[in-house]
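Handout for the seminar on molecular recognition.
Each group receives one record of this type.
Step one: identify the two inputs.
Step two: read the structure output and locate the region that could contact BIS(adenosine)-5'-tetraphosphate.
Step three: write two sentences on what you found, then compare them with the reference statements printed after the record.
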Amino acid sequence: MFHIILFGPPGSGKGTQSEKLIAEYGLIHLSTGNLLRSEIANKTALGLEAKSVMDKGQLVPDEVVIGMISSQLDAHADAKGFLFDGFPRTVAQAEALDKLLKLKNSGIGVFLALDVSEEELVKRLLGRGLTSGRSDDTDEAVIRARITEYNAKTTAVADYYKQFDKVVNVPGEGSIDDIYASLKTQIDARMH
Ligand code: B4P
């Protein structure tokens, strides 16, 4: 099993690159953002709780997100590997993932971190907000709150994986295809 974590701030290109990576490597794509939006669309109790948090640009409680990932891992027990997109976003989520996958020393394949400047992130997300209908993309204050939440709670996740030598930083500005080529080079160097 080879697992990839695609990491980076909101709007760094995780969702965009994930679509291309799963097509290439045949991994199961687990995006906690997509899973949460699907709960919201289906008007579940979990979705109602998540929506009020997401609309403020904050992180959904760890136990909710970990529960969702746990069910997905069970549902895809025969997968050849997972591509985690937007998860883990806290150190508690990272530790829970190790337990769920029964990994020693965070034995994932690679942790790919996309680097993008804050101004570029805001520009991209406001741009997506014009067409996506995502309520967390239309208000610049909410976008800035998501970035603040990332800096406060999520950057520590990269430090967690650094102790196991899993982190590779990849420039996330430039063309989508060039960024994809850089990600692919890093994965191929570790996959075989
Ligand atoms: P996510 O759905 O993970 O969303 P994201 O951070 O906005 O997105 P992503 O990085 O995937 O955006 P993409 O680049 O595809 O999270 C949303 C919310 O859900 C969070 O704020 C939180 O509340 C909650 N949540 C999710 N996971 C959680 C967890 N584990 N724990 C707690 N809460 C959680 O797209 C951005 C835009 O950039 C697009 O318009 C795209 O077209 C564009 N773009 C991409 N690459 C580009 C490039 N190279 N150049 C120019 N534009 C580009």
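Reference statements: The chain has a mean pLDDT of 95. The chain has one domain: 4-191.
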